[in-house]
């Protein structure tokens, strides 16, 4: 059955992939974004097949107008990217919290009864149990550290949606993405940053092992999910998820950052000599979700980490050198 969705943050990385999927599946889609981090070019291939409203998600009047006639709101809008957490924490919090209130008030004003909130694994920071279930305590270890501005905004957001307008929605779902990656994800995340630095170092050192500095000793771990798998899982959550339930959207494969760096170098066709460095305050040593809830909805990832890294590294190398032949990435060793 075709539905009418409002997607906030719809020109962002996750948002643009989601909008394309919703349109492909025959739904009507209205996108709200002001391109603070999003990029209109991500949706050029479906121009004319969705409605775009360029406005600030914190503007309640604009959001009330944007939510008119929709069946469901998928609230993705946020200022993500670790660099932003440290350098613009006030804006991270403002967009995260005031943007959520404006969007919730827009839902109430228009009688929208379904609300899907994007939270984050950052909401539980350094968990006591790994793999981590959805009911793990949400914590902020140090409110004075700007690193936690994003995680704090997501923790508060989960509390807000659970209690503010709690009698309005007939379907209210929270999902927590875990390190979603893929082509055109932006430059402020670990995989594109490692890729850019690796390519630069490979150009500097024409032969032999390439010295490459990483944060800490590289033993810290994460779980990564390729964007296509993520969207498949999110669609299951939107369609079949339970009212007032939280879902981790990720994979159960835990990989070290050192291993990730070595995989990226392998795609470039070189081998790295990893050099440890200081580990930033507020960093998390281990993070991997327990995913039995999404498995119960029928989710199983299709893209291996190796294949996903290959696709992503190739995209970023090509973006940096658009005239590069399609078979060039692994041959960069010279």
Write the layout of secondary structure elements.
Blueprint: E1 4-8, H1 13-24, E2 28-32, E3 51-53, H2 60-66, E4 72-75, H3 82-87, H4 89-110, E5 114-118, H5 149-163, E6 171-177, E7 180-181, H6 190-204, E8 210-215, E9 221-223, E10 225-226, H7 227-240, E11 245-249, E12 254-256, H8 257-268, E13 272-277, H9 292-296, H10 305-320
CATH topology (level 3) name of the largest domain: Rossmann fold
* Spatial shape: globular
Largest sheet: 7 strands, parallel
In CATH's first tier, which class of the largest domain applies?
Alpha Beta
Question: CATH H level of the largest domain: which superfamily?
Answer: NAD(P)-binding Rossmann-like Domain
Q: With helices defined by DSSP (H or I, 4 residues minimum), what is the helix count?
A: 10
How far is it from the N-terminal to the C-terminal residue, by CA?
A: 53 Å
The assigned structural class equals: alpha/beta
Q: Average pLDDT across residues?
A: 93
Radius of gyration from the alpha-carbon trace, in angstroms: 20 Å
The percent of residues in helical segments reads 25-40%
DSSP strand tally = 13
**What is the number of domains?**
2
How are helices and strands ordered from N to C?
EHEEHEHHEHEEHEEEHEEHEHH
CATH architecture type of the largest domain: 3-Layer(aba) Sandwich
Could you name the ranges where pLDDT drops below 50 across 5 or more consecutive residues? 324-334
Strand order of the largest sheet: 3-2-1-4-5-6-11
How much β-strand is present in the residues?
Answer: 15-25%
């Amino acid at each position: 059955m075709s539905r009418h969705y409002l997607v906030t943050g719809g020109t962002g990385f996750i948002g643009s992939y989601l909008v394309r999927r919703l349109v492909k599946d025959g739904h009507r889609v209205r996108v709200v974004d002001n391109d603070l981090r999003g990029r209109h070019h991500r949706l050029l291939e479906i121009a004319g097949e969705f409605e775009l409203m360029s406005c600030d998600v914190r503007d309640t009047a604009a959001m009330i107008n944007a939510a008119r006639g929709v069946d469901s709101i998928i609230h993705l809008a946020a200022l993500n990217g670790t660099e932003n957490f440290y350098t613009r924490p006030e804006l991270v919090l403002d967009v995260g919290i005031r943007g959520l209130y404006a969007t919730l008030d827009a839902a109430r004003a228009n009688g929208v009864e379904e609300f899907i909130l994007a939270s984050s694994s950052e909401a539980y920071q350094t968990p006591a149990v790994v793999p981590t279930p959805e009911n793990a305590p949400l914590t902020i270890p140090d409110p004075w550290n700007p690193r936690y501005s994003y995680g704090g905004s997501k923790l508060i957001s989960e509390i807000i949606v659970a209690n503010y307008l709690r009698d309005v929605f007939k379907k209210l779902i929270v999902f927590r993405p875990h390190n979603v990656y893929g082509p055109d994800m932006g430059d402020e995340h670990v995989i594109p940053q490692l890729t850019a630095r690796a390519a630069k170092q490979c150009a500097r050192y024409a032969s032999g092992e390439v010295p490459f500095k990483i944060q800490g000793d590289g033993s810290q771990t994460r779980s990564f999910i390729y964007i296509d798998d993520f969207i498949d899982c999110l669609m299951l959550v939107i369609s079949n998820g339970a009212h007032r339930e939280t879902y981790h959207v990720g994979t159960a494969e835990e990989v070290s950052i050192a291993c990730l760096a070595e995989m990226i170098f392998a795609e470039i066709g070189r081998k790295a000599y990893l050099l440890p460095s200081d580990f930033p305050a507020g960093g998390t040593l281990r993070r991997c979700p327990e995913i039995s809830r999404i498995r119960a909805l029928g989710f199983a990832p299709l893209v291996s980490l190796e294949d996903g890294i290959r696709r992503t590294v190739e995209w970023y190398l090509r973006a940096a050198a658009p005239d590069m032949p399609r078979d060039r990435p692994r041959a960069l060793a010279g």
